[in-house]
Amino acid sequence: MAASKPTLRDVAAAAGVSPMTASNALRGKTGVKESTRARVLAAAKKLDYRINLTASMLKSGRSNIIHVIVNEFDSPFYSKLTQALSNEIVARGLTPFIEQTRYSADAAAHALTSNPFSGQLFDGEILHATGLGTNLPLAKLNGGRPFVLVDACEETPTVDAVNFPNEEAERAAAQHLIDHGCRKIAIVGHAFTKRTDLAHAQNAFLLRLRGACNALLDAGLPYDETTVFEAGSAEDGIAAGHAIAQQILATRGNADVGEGADPPFDGVCCANDFAAFGVIRGLADHGVRVPQDVQVIGFDGVTSGSYATPSLSTIEVDLNQLAKFALDMIAERVERRGEEDAEPLPPSRATIGYQLVERESTAPHLL
Questions:
Q1: Which of 129, 146, 352, 364 would disulfide-bridge 124, Cβ 3.0–4.6 Å?
Q2: Please, what is the angle between helix 8-15 and helix 34-47, to 10°?
Q3: What is the pLDDT of residues 236-270, one digit of tens each?
Q4: pLDDT per residue over 263-311, tens digit each?
Q5: How far apart are CA 236 and CA 288, in angstroms?
Q6: 201-212 in b/e burial notation, b at 16+ Cβ within 10 A?
Q7: Which residues contact 233 (CB under 8 A, 6 or more apart)?
């Protein structure tokens, strides 16, 4: 005779908790101590307990599945972001369902509306909004499910959002170059935008441009069309590096300038690490050394920056904090969805922390 399948009561007994606590822990509900949740998950694993998803959904109206939508998989940054979100989802006893948009607004709309599971299976959804533009009515496409936008950067949030410290951190990156003696700093990221037009920036790269721009102008340093280069990828970064290097070499070879003249650029502040890697490559192609001739700093904190030559100084954003914020927002809305006569919550917004990591690309003394 076949052994009977373990039940929720068996898991609760093995973990030394009530069936209700065991259920809450397995379903990632709030209000359960992490130590208790870990004990319940360990008991479930030992007993080989499996949640009957169909029965669970019929009873609770929940699947415990969180839909995560990012721009791409083939990227160290998105790998790190997806890992942080997946780890947090799993730690709460939930299951991640992950797909990519390849920076396509149509693909994002499809993921939210035409995915075979959309509107039926997911308890909540997390979408990285960078690169999708501001015209996509994501809140309406989502169909009212608990929904968090990552880096939406709306001045007035329409849905829950967790943002990167775009302006503040990029300002710190530019200030780092200034503090290291740089006096002609190139900004690599968004296309040049007048300072007055940056007042109502609503995307990540524009906010980063505003942060760098303000740091330069407050320090009395130049900010104009000649100091800004558009690049978000490594390939575009290489092109920017070539353009910067050519200006430096032209100054070196210009006898009219005179020996000892200031170079056209001595620092580069990049909107992401990929552009920074490209810039360093582009400079090296023309024999311009980093950091001896030009100092370079990136943004994001991808792991590969610590292994590059030279290793890359960067703004390292707290992706683990981002994941916690996002899941807290979803959990709160999931809980309230089951409450009768609950007042609707207004959209909430949080900004994650960062740290400036100094490495060889802005520290000649480290070489």
A1: 146
A2: 120
A3: 999 999 999 999 998 876 645 455 567 799 999 99
A4: 799 999 999 999 999 999 999 999 999 999 999 999 999 999 999 999 9
A5: 18
A6: bebbbbbbbbbb
A7: 274, 275, 278
